[in-house]
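Co-fold these.
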Amino acid sequence: MPLRAKVASSVSRTAAALSRAAGRGDGSVIGGWIGLKIDPDLLAHLSAGRAIALVSGTNGKTTTTRLAAAAVGVLGRVATNSFGANMPTGHTSALAKAGSTPYAVLEVDEHYLAQVLEATEPHVVALLNLSRDQLDRAKEVAMMAQLWRSALVNHPDVRVVANADDPMVVWAATPPGDPARGIRPPHVTWFSAGQRWHDDSWVCPECGHTIQRSGEQWWCSGCPLRRPQPQWAVEDDGVLDPTGAWHKVSLQLPGKVNVGNAATALAVAAEFGVRPVDAVSRLGSVTSVAGRYAQVDRDGRNIRLLLAKNPASWLEAFEMADVAPTLLSINARDPDGLDTSWLFDVDFAPLRGRQVLITGDRAYDLAVRLDVNGVPFQHVRTFAEVVRAVPPGRLEVIANYTAFQDIRAELDRVN
Amino acid sequence: MSTESLRIVWIYPDLLSTYGDRGNMLILARRAQQRGMPVEVLEVRSDQRLPATADIYLVGGGEDGPQALGAQRLRADGGLHRAAAQGSVVFGVCAGYQLLGTSFFAKGVQCTGLELLDLSSDRGPSRAVGELAGDIDPRLGVPALTGFENHGGRTHLGPGVSPLARVTAGVGNDGATEGAWRGKLLGTYSHGPALARNPALADLLLRWATGAHQLPPLDDTWADRLRAERRAAVTAARA
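Predicted complex below.
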């Protein structure tokens, strides 16, 4: 590593440690920011010599990154940005902090995938899904798919692991080659992790015709785009690998969604030569991820935290949650997006029959939504009020980003 | 009403549904059902024919490509023109509002609208994103508009329409007026589930559709609290 990069890396580690000691978050953003100021190519320098996997998508990337890091761990030490700091500053900080490791698995914000592909030259990139998320500032889904597709054209050697169930991902993962420039399309391994949310992929990104669906199959009515045959798939509570062998997956994380994330993680690890039979037991060691799925006991209530940031992830949270009293919390601060319109894209009907409490900066938006949805609820303002309102036992908490962080802080910053 | 039940059509959810646009359909259906009216809701995709005999047609928001495609298919279909001519209610939101006019811009190209409202839209100097508020045309008898806008367009009203509201916060059409209406056609830049924050506007559409001069009041406690909170937030942001 050049001297400038060494200095930058060391300063970055120190800044992150100071930030943590000062109680200002986990330090992964500030550390990376300072490091990149000293050496703008620091991320590339820190990436050199490591075999890297990138994980990107609208939902599930933090959890899948954590699972994939556990699976790749079969081979040796793995650097990873496990705090969900998923922009280049976070990657820089994670690699600097980890020191020299043969492997790295990095979660990447979907807007930054092209830039991080360029800087890290990964061996594998996993593409999970694309759906609407914070539309008052994020790019529309089709535009994001186009950005991914263009980025992959420039990296024909990267091995792509992609979700066969999401038409936007399939299109993004299969850019045409350019024979004139000697560029062939990248190699893709397909997994099937399901897609609960279809409302951003009715229109074919290739030709504009309607996407048709039947069961798990989908196809475009106007061009050859259709669901590829997946090599990895979820079956019952396990994962089918490309040889047809079935591996039981015992996770501490809830829901079928996470079995899908486990399938993706095993597919990513397989690109490094990890056999699923060797990795599958390690997935059970993952308990919570940056507070997601964390369980806290307080006054006889077992409180479990679920993060849901956009319509697709709310549907997944309802699937993961037990039929138990449920607290919903909604904010609309900058990191959440200022617009709460998406609440009407979520069908809250699965909560009928459960005791529902609501809170957060934008509880009234949620109240109007639940009223229209025919879901009875009670509005609360403090966590103490919540605990008083529900019987002892499981309490599910589903919250969007800053609301989730508020509740984590309330529960002493659980991980 | 055209039939035994109130028929609500949501036009092209596959193209024109970006920001919880489904909400307007759900809210109208709910408020009608709470008054004991039987309701039929139809989601009509862009590869299907539009029924010409519904009572309320909803046209939602969308990005440039889907907006242009939606306008093209609606022109070719002709169903919305027939329905509007027969006195059906049409409610357009954001991109759906623009395409009710004579022309709009999508991906830098001027597109022909449905020419149902005397207005045209072009690109503004900047994107309008944030809270939108305004005092609604007193002839409509509806309290102040509150909503969230997110659009790059500016809309110029012709003499054949009236502004829906005078802007008190945000941009709307041009920073002075917001939305437009004529007869039983109404459009607004208050995007997505615009009726969630404006239950009186929902009831106006229901009154237009049913011919009722008055509807039994509903419990709007939560919507009223939401309106008060948003009004306070707009005031605080200005201070």
